[in-house]
Amino acid sequence: MIDSFAGNTTKPNPFEVAQRQFDIAADRLGLDNGLRQVLRTTKRELTVHFPVTMDDGSIQVFTGYRVQHDVGRGPAKGGIRYHPDVTLDEVRALAMWMTWKCAVVRLPYGGAKGGVVCDPKRMSLSEQETLTRRFATELTPLIGPDSDIPAPDVNTNPQTMAWIMDTYSMHQGYSVPSVVTGKPIDVGGSEGRAEATGRGVVFTIEQAARELGLDLANATVAVQGYGNAGSTTAKLLHRDYGCHIVAVSDSRGAIHNPEGIDPDAAVLYKGQNGSVSGFPSSEPISNEDLLALPVDILVPAALENQITEENAGSVRARIIAEAANGPTTPEADQMLYGNGQMVIPDILANAGGVTVSYFEWVQDKQAFFWTETEINEKLRRIMLSSFDEVLQTAKREKVDMRTAAYLLAVDRVAAATRLRGIYP
Ligand code: NAD
């Protein structure tokens, strides 16, 4: 089955991709049929159609989803995405990836995801707030600090999380900061959360470069998707390791400068102009060209299905660090692995976000907050040990890094399911 969620071209259905990735690990683990059925299916799915009064007084009905894939290891955890191309199958895939991600880095969470079919870029701030508060209300049967904890994803941000926290708290009659993570610091957010996804990506790139003998000080980097995850990855790679960021892109276009792009200036420019397109001293290129640049490190940080069997052969980067969820299809994975290119899989590479979300939730629950240094040290420890576990598994089992990460994750979730048993 194919789905046209990602623009005009038909792309693989993300949930089928997620299930195929799971099947590869389940086969190798020899998972029995019953457990396989449990883990390749989502546990709970809520679809809501809800009205929002727009600024001009008209009423528009929006569709939103919240999917919990598995809660064997703890409460469901996962972001909420606002995008015109959101589908139920995309949210299912993202929820399943969250389950494996939390298991790879050993967080006591299951996996969930949410999405609303909308284009926030065409909505005023007050329309976004009304939509968010109504969607949060619709999610009330599912979300809660011990049941399902949302966080930011594409086109949602700390402000969105503050609105969700406030709406949920109004219904409870008292403040419940731990119902969402990725909040602003002033309402119970954590130091380091805004940069956590990018920082985690960078820690995994550091380890991959060490393994491959790549000198990061002279490394070139292309970043697809210059949002929260992509721009932070670029900034830290440049500032802390001396990498040259030679190309970046967003939904409106890509830019290239072989001499290097100042990542902070690009963030500023995007903030002022709505896009990196037109950034001074850079050449416009296509998104396809960006993926095929002769760089050392490619960071897909936008959406799913960007590296497929059609273009994987032209990807030349030595390291592909998946800041985005689901950017590479299983066919492309095989091609890249066959070529000796290392893909740091999404469920490992971008797990820094949910890791610091976990820290935020723990801090909210105990109402006692840590310093940014403590947060970053704890994050670094988890990312490094998780990377090492995945790498050692990949070497031992002679498989690619994604399969290795899945072997660890699926095995851990399966163990929890066996221990808990099938109710009743
Ligand atoms: P964001 O909304 O901050 O940024 C997304 C960026 O991608 C935007 O700049 C957008 O213009 C760009 N983009 C969209 N379509 C594009 C295309 N076709 N080509 C190039 N660029 C395109 O979102 P984000 O939070 O940075 O999320 C990006 C990816 O990272 C998603 O896959 C998300 O699931 C994943 N992720 C995010 C977090 C987090 O904490 N924010 C955590 C883990 C994973």
Describe this structure as you would to a colleague.
The chain is an alpha/beta fold and 424 residues long. It has 2 domains: 1-34 and 191-350 and 372-424, Rossmann fold; 44-187, Leucine Dehydrogenase, chain A, domain 1 (Rossmann fold). Helices cover 46% and strands 18% of the residues. The strands form 3 sheets. The protein has a 7-stranded mixed sheet. Strands 3-4-6-5-7 form a 5-stranded mixed sheet. It has a two-stranded antiparallel sheet with strand order 1-2. Helix 10 links the parallel strand 13 and strand 14. Helix 1 runs parallel beside helix 3, helix 3 (88-104) crosses helix 14 (401-420) and helix 6 crosses helix 12 (351-366). The longest helix is centred in the last third of the chain and has 26 residues, at 372-397. It is globular and about 55 Å long. Residues 1-8 have low confidence and may be disordered.
